Amino acid sequence: MLHIETWKRVLIWGLVALGLLLALPNAFYGRVEAYNDELKAAQPDGSDAEPASGWVSWLPHGLVNLGLDLRGGAHLLAEVRTQEVYKTRMDALWPEVRDLLRDKRDTVGTIRLQPSDDGTLKIRIGNAEGMSAAIAAVKTLAQPVSSVTAAGASDLDVSGQGDLLTVQLSEAEKAATDDRTVKQSLEIIRRRIDEVGTREPTIQREGSDRILIEVPGLGSAQELKDIIGTTAQLTFQPVVSRTTNKDTAVGAGQELLPASDEKGVYYLLESAPVVSGEDLTDAQPTFDQNGNPAVSFKFNVSGARRFGDYTAQNIGSPFAIVLDDQVISAPVIQAHIAGGSGIITGNFTVEQSTNLAVLLRAGALPAGLNFLEERTIGPELGADSIHAGTVACIVAGIAVLVFMFASYGLFGVFANIALVINMCLIFGILSLIGATLTLPGIAGIVLTIGMAVDANVLVFERIREELKTAKGPARAIELGYDRALSAIVDANITTFIIAVILFVLGTGPVQGFAVTLGIGIVTSVFTAIYVTRLLMVMWFERARPKKIEV
Amino acid sequence: MRRLKLVPEETHYDFFKYRTITFGISAVAVVASIILWLTMGLNFGIDFRGGSTIRTQSEQPVDVAAYRQAISPLGLGDIVITEVFGTSDHVASIRIQSQNDQDSVSSATIDKVEKALQGVDSSIKFTSVESVGPKVSGELIQTAFLAVGASLAAILLYIWLRFEWQFALGAVIALFHDVLVTIGIFALFQIKFDLTVIAALLTIIGYSINDTVVIFDRLRENLRKYKTKPLIDVMNLSVNETLSRTLMTSGTTLIALIALLVLGGDVIRGFVFAITWGVVVGTYSSVYVAKNIVLWLGVKRDWTKKSNGGKGNQFANIDA
């Protein structure tokens, strides 16, 4: 009557053994963590050298990641100012538009850039009848949008009203640009954090224009912001004039930027850069001929050509080296600079020049960041939380084990074995999927300890009832399982629905809780329906009791 | 062998004898909670209203007045300083309101606060600093309400599919009761209400529905077994039959939660408190709210007539 096929038994024990094996590394957390670090350090070199210490190589070495609230670190939620890119694009477009319209001066007349909002070019043409020709000419600059959803659409919106020509990015292009900007920012943030070299940073996109960065072990969110908060946009721009009056009239296509080292000094510059940081191939900290810290740079081929052409044509006039809207220096061009390399001098400290070189190498962020959320958790607080959580888990576990044994005797022992296996399975699965354990996550586990016995309790209570009417103990056990099943399934599916909703809508700590709760439900149903039952059947086959007491 | 028995082997308590009174108490509690919520408001944490929370730790006892005096010249607007009890260290929590309408409180501001406090107490350390900008906190509130709403809707639908619509309605009203009464307690004692409390509310929903479903399941079974017995008797029988299980499960869960409440540290105390409270309320509401509703609404007893009208019990015959 009570029969479980052999292949099922093997499968059940196999799954349990697998779970225990996967959970095992967590019992030796420090050792396995050191092993993993060595492994990671060894691999990028391509060498297959086995780490010397610690862990048996054929055993699994996945660990449960500890959340920031448990080990301390910094958390930042940044919003990418995607609109900034529109302006950059338009500023760069202006010289091309100007040259194009200049060639058509006969039909278009004089052209003059008008002041306008960021991200739009407004151009007044001298001859309003030539508008359609002007529009057609500018439209030749447009290119198809490079995205799947808006394939075929043009990237520029060109329109004319009277003698005013307006050029801006099309909506489709804006959407595509936004997406590209966030992706680029993500990549550059990752590169910068990798340059600093911290363990297991989390860098992921949230929603359409946000980036979540979590770096464990870092002292504060401020340190993290120092690394990723600087845009590091480097441009070389023609200088119109130098002034101390910050109210200087700014013409169209020009901008007034402050000098970084001299207070009260401003430079009036052409907005369209000659060359920008995107054309850099390398940047290294160095010293100038006077022994002051500086950064040497090298352009790629197209950057070198433009830089060379510009310097050849403008010998004797100054140009500005601009970093994040501040003029670092504005040297006068002495000679044609060919070869595309040079140095940037400013009043740098050695540390600043080293940092700047790192930022220039990693690339500029395409747009600035707003910080919407920052959290710093000290490592001591994390350690306290882990300690408190562990103690609570152990005490809760023991109390429940004692309570179950006192209530159900031998059957309680079966349930208790299943409960311990359940805990191991939770940790095994968490390690397998590389989930992050947070403080609410620990609470989720403790709650699971309490609720995991529920399925067993339902079965045991049912067996008790069936014993009153059923023909024998074996039949009662069988009926108990069969009849309790629908309640177990319904009760756990509803709770599982909640866990899924929490996971989908939650963030950070709440998600951590949802993960452990959800896994806990699956494992507790598995252990209650299969493991406890198997234990019971194995005992029953051996003891063959005439009477059982639940 | 002697066993621990929370309830006798067989019980015949009449759970519905005083149903007007118990249901009345529940109704009053819900109304009182809503009034408390509206009048006193919730003590929202920075997750929901933006701003910064700083957790300080010091070798010297916390002097809230001195802290306040040191920080107030900085002109940061509303500042709430509370001592955190129940830790071995001298811990205080300082909350600063948002300084603009978008971004999180800047690190420069936090540095100023740290310098000012170090003037009062040189051993003071910031063990955690959390800042949330108003832009995010506004969204977090929306998401939180969405999560609670989505959970209730999902459960309504699931119970409806698996049982009858009366059961679904009873279960969801019981869940509303649990959530509102918990919010009421948070308003009454002005306990900090943040994202983790929303997680706790959803856990309560999960636990309470678990409990309700187990009793419903038994009721469904008994309704088929005793086709002529009055509904109230079948209900009483069902609750009595599952009483032992209900108390065992609540018992083990409460044991685990109380361990966490006492030993789990102050960081998650609000969260654990909410769940603990919810388990008690959820167990109560399964019988006294959910069942009462079903009792009042009545259920279709005669299964020979096919007048189901798409009430959706076609999935309900799993253990018939």
TrEMBL record, chain A:
Residues 255-367 form the SecDF P1 head subdomain domain. InterPro entries: Acrflvin-R (IPR001036), SecD (IPR005791), SecD/SecF_arch_bac (IPR022813), SecD_1st (IPR048631), SecD_SecF_C (IPR048634), SecD_SecF_C_bact (IPR055344), SecDF_P1_head (IPR054384). Signal peptide: none annotated. Keywords: Cell inner membrane, Cell membrane, Membrane, Protein transport, Translocation, Transmembrane, Transmembrane helix, Transport. It is found in: Cell membrane. It comes from the Bacteria. Coiled coil: none annotated. This is Protein translocase subunit SecD. It comes from Pseudooceanicola albus. The lineage of its organism: Bacteria, Pseudomonadati, Pseudomonadota, Alphaproteobacteria, Rhodobacterales. The gene is secD.
From TrEMBL, chain B:
The chain crosses the membrane at residues 21-40, 140-160, 167-189, 195-216, 247-265, 271-297. It is found in: Cell membrane. This is Protein-export membrane protein SecF. It comes from Pseudooceanicola albus. The lineage of its organism: Bacteria, Pseudomonadati, Pseudomonadota, Alphaproteobacteria, Rhodobacterales. It holds the Pfam family SecD_SecF_C. Keywords: Cell membrane, Membrane, Protein transport, Translocation, Transmembrane, Transmembrane helix, Transport. Forms a complex with SecD. Part of the essential Sec protein translocation apparatus which comprises SecA, SecYEG and auxiliary proteins SecDF-YajC and YidC. It comes from the Bacteria. GO terms for molecular function: protein-transporting ATPase activity. It is a multi-pass membrane protein. Its main location: membrane. One of its GO terms (cellular component) is plasma membrane. Part of the Sec protein translocase complex. Interacts with the SecYEG preprotein conducting channel. SecDF uses the proton motive force (PMF) to complete protein translocation after the ATP-dependent function of SecA. One of its GO terms (biological process) is intracellular protein transmembrane transport. The keyword Transport applies. InterPro entries: SecD/SecF_arch_bac, SecD/SecF_bac, SecD/SecF_CS, SecD_SecF_C, SecD_SecF_C_bact, SecF_bac. In the N-terminal section; belongs to the SecD/SecF family. SecD subfamily. Belongs to the SecD/SecF family. SecF subfamily. Residues 113-298 form the Protein export membrane protein SecD/SecF C-terminal domain.
